[in-house]
Design brief:
Residues 30-341 form the Aminotransferase class I/classII large domain. The protein is an alpha/beta fold and 349 residues long. It is built from eleven helices and twelve strands. Helix 8 (245-256) packs across helix 9 (258-280).
Length: 349
């Protein structure tokens, strides 16, 4: 249904959906790239802090204190950090600050759908650059397209392929002079970050999150790192008081209890190895080797597989009209349950 007040561009947009709203406790959730474990240390620290929290007062408007803690953690200055209500708010703020009507934004695809949506919201033009047939980054094509473009948005490791891109590939695009947005939501699972590139390039914004490896998706906390000039520009358009007191405390505690993240990443890598190896052994399934906490796999009858898994109370990510599905790397028990169910389904299909 359309209201008479809608902007014309809404005709081409759909609400974002990953079926993440499904919260059945009996469902095995392998669709949203969530960590399967809770950070109990953070929750207990938050529990102890709640009664003394000055909830009747606004937080400090520039989020100065938590920006400093993040900066100390990653080895940058506070002026290089901007925090958001999840990485999604950072993406939106980038759109508000840097995308003018008819600006062209390069988006290697398939990737996170929000990049295109935000570009359209601010009346920019998404330029879709298909990934290579092996899902590698088409660097030469992107570089060629930069001649008429303002921004490139690149996710590494990429969602949904799980493939990481090298610093050299990113440098090739940065060297063209356009603004490069590097989304590193899953970088902890790859063991590599492009943060060091910020010492060489002032046309780079790197987005990070506490939702994935830190297991804090429910608190919606993310940030970006960039030159002081770019952060200042973004600060002009980000909403005031955008991060609440609880989220700030959660970030502080997540950094303090970093060992939980490191242990979780180690376990996810072990489970990822099992999951990838098991998928390779199943006839008719072609998994893509991943550096993230999920695996993309090609198959026939993807809709049937998705629906049959759902009947067995397992939810994975379905992509309409595509020959692939994405499964999150869960606990070992969840991975075993998924593989067992998939084998059973394919003997029937």
């Amino acid at each position: 249904m359309k209201s008479k007040f809608d902007r014309d561009l809404l005709d081409g947009l759909e609400p974002y959906s990953s079926e993440v709203s499904i919260s059945d406790d009996n469902l095995t959730r392998l669709h949203a790239n969530e960590l399967p474990w809770k950070n109990e240390a953070v929750l207990w620290a938050l529990h102890d802090y709640l009664l003394s929290m000055p909830v009747n007062r606004y937080p400090e408007v520039t989020n100065s204190e938590i920006r400093q803690k993040i900066a100390d953690y990653i080895g940058f200055e506070k002026e290089n950090v901007l925090v958001g209500n999840g990485s999604d708010e950072i993406i939106d703020t980038i759109g508000k600050a840097f995308i003018s009507p008819l600006d062209k934004v390069l988006i290697p695809t398939p990737t996170f759908s929000l990049y295109s949506s935000i570009t359209r919201v601010y009346s920019g033009i998404p330029i879709i650059v298909p990934l290579n047939s092996d899902y590698a980054l088409p660097v030469e094509k992107i570089v060629d397209e930069t001649k008429n473009s303002k921004i490139a948005i690149i996710c590494s490791p990429n969602n949904p392929t799980g493939i990481s891109y090298t610093d050299e590939e990113i440098k090739s695009i940065l060297d063209t002079g356009i603004l490069v947005i590097l989304d590193e939501a899953y970088a902890e699972f790859s063991g590599h970050s492009g943060l060091g590139l910020l010492n060489e390039y002032d046309n780079l914004i790197i987005m990070k999150t506490f939702s994935k490896a830190f297991g804090l998706a429910g608190f919606r906390t993310g940030y970006c790192v960039a030159s002081e000039t770019l952060i200042e520009s973004m600060s002009k358009v980000i909403l005031p008081y955008n991060l609440n007191l609880i989220s700030m405390k959660v970030i502080e505690m997540a950094i303090k209890h970093e060992d939980f993240m490191k242990d979780s990443v180690k376990k996810i890598k072990e489970n990822r190895k099992y999951l990838y190896g098991s998928l390779k052994e199943i006839k008719g399934i072609k998994p893509i080797e991943s550096s993230a906490n999920f695996i993309l796999f090609e198959a026939e009858n993807t809709r049937r597989i998705y629906e049959e898994l759902l009947k067995r109370r397992i939810l994975i990510r379905y992509f309409e009209g595509k020959n692939y599905l994405r499964v999150s790397v869960g606990s070992y028990e969840e991975c075993v349950k998924f593989i067992s169910s998939l084998r059973e389904i394919l003997n029937v299909c």
